[in-house]
Amino acid sequence: MPEHKAGFVALAGRPNAGKSTLLNALLKVKLSIVSSKPQTTRHRVLGILEGEGFQACLLDTPGLIDAPADPLQKALRVESTRALREDADPIVYLVDAADADPAAVETPPRRPDCPVLLVLNKCDLTLPAGKLDALEAAFSAALKPEKVLRLSALKGQGVAQLRDEILARLPENPPFYEKGQLSDRWERFFASEIVREQVFELFHDEIPHATAVVVESFRERQGRPDEVHATLFVERDGQKGILIGKGGKDLRRLTERAQASLENFLGRKVDLELWIKVRKNWRKDPSALKEFGYQS
Ligand SMILES: Nc1nc2c(ncn2[C@@H]2O[C@H](COP(=O)(O)OP(=O)(O)OP(=O)(O)O)[C@@H](O)[C@H]2O)c(=O)[nH]1
Ligand SMILES: [Mg+2]
Prior knowledge:
By secondary structure, the chain is an alpha/beta fold.
């Protein structure tokens, strides 16, 4: 048997650092949802990067928040921490070069022996002179990375080099997943994420963070578009009104955009129907969190 390398690699960092953008850039596939608002990713998303003789199982994780404010944020932190402590080898730690402060360096939860690749992301932006050097010095002192890379996940600059650094660190292992598989999630999961991405895109303030999406049914039909029904749960009646909009126009726009994005992802036609329901304060309600898939 020729040797085969395989391992799990966690992408970690503060909310909005660019982890999901980087996952997609490494895979060259739009798998994980992205938005300009922090706390977009709520689940660990596996994306499998593979080739002849290797399989890198990349884990996108929810952004790390130091002091979770509600049970949902707590659940997200548990999800990230688990990926970093149990699964990852190595960790790719992303720092938003435009936003991070060298005087306020965070340290992610991790196994002490787990190698770290430190990524200063968003290097395409114009930054104050000396900022990158200051960030590199501060984060290197705290995280003791094996390697520091400056890149732009958005523009793809430096991504190929990061890929090589990841592959060079994969241990010898047989494949963990069947070759050719891109993720361990089903189409239902991606459908709910694609709807949520459009909520982040089209709505503001607390609405994206107060919305959970549950796909109720996903039916493939012979010779006709797939039928996908999903419910958006919000926390209050007022939020329901905002999502629906005057005469239903905002819900229609959301449905159209999400349907187009889902069709693009699946490569086939879809009939998407969305319902809006209120589940009072679901982010604080352990049974709702469980029902919506935020606690395992
Ligand atoms: N200019 C620039 N913007 C970037 C880069 N990478 C990501 N972004 C932007 O940063 C924002 C956040 O990106 P995401 O990939 O959603 O960040 P994330 O770390 O996954 O965020 P959470 O899921 O909330 O933890 C989006 O608007 C991206 O387009 C980059 O290299 N350069
Ligand atoms: Mg993300």
